[in-house]
Write a structure and sequence with these properties.
two-stranded parallel sheet; globular; alpha/beta; five-stranded mixed sheet; Beta Polymerase, domain 2; 9 strands; single chain
């Protein structure tokens, strides 16, 4: 199934909850308009017999930087890539988070549907600071547990010392 066919199925089911983006590029995507719909859409992708996305390939978190200089508002993006082995089709979903609107920078965890989400979500939490609600073990995975800050944020400042050791990059 090609992207256009997948997009039609999702638009019929979720109408105003999603929008189609980047249709002229090699990797078009579906933008989830409100994060509250993530679990419902993900469950549909997994359980609908026409789609059956049995593999969560990747979760990526991005800090797109300050989008509003006056309010100092950052925009973060969570990108999900799914693949169906039986049908050999793929899809990319994205959610935008504004740190002024969402102080916790949180979305629902997908670990209840795909076990692979566990480590992907932990990495996004560790590097960007996005919290995944109902994650079974959300803790740092790459940085020490007591590390300060999130290294892939645009406003990140490296600690000068860590446990008395100079941090030098």
């Amino acid at each position: 199934m090609v992207f256009e066919e997948l997009a039609i199925i999702l638009q019929e089911k979720f109408q105003n909850s999603i929008s189609i983006q980047n249709t002229e590029t090699l990797q078009p995507r579906i933008l989830i308009e409100k994060k509250e719909f993530l679990l419902e859409i993900a469950h549909f992708l997994y359980s609908d017999k026409r789609l059956y996305f049995d593999n969560l390939v990747c979760i990526t978190a991005l800090d797109n930087g300050v989008i509003d200089e006056i309010n100092n508002e950052n925009r973060f993006e969570i990108i999900y890539q799914f693949y169906s082995y039986p049908f050999e089709h793929s899809i990319t979903l994205a959610i935008l988070l504004l740190d002024k609107e969402d102080k916790k920078l949180s979305v629902d965890s997908l670990t209840s549907l795909w076990k692979a989400a566990d480590w992907h979500e932990r990495e996004a939490f560790d590097m960007i600071g996005v919290k995944f609600e109902n994650h079974p073990d959300l803790r740092r995975i790459l940085m020490p547990a007591d590390w300060e800050g999130f290294p892939l944020r645009k406003n990140y400042k490296t600690q000068e010392e860590y446990h008395g050791i100079k941090v030098d990059y």
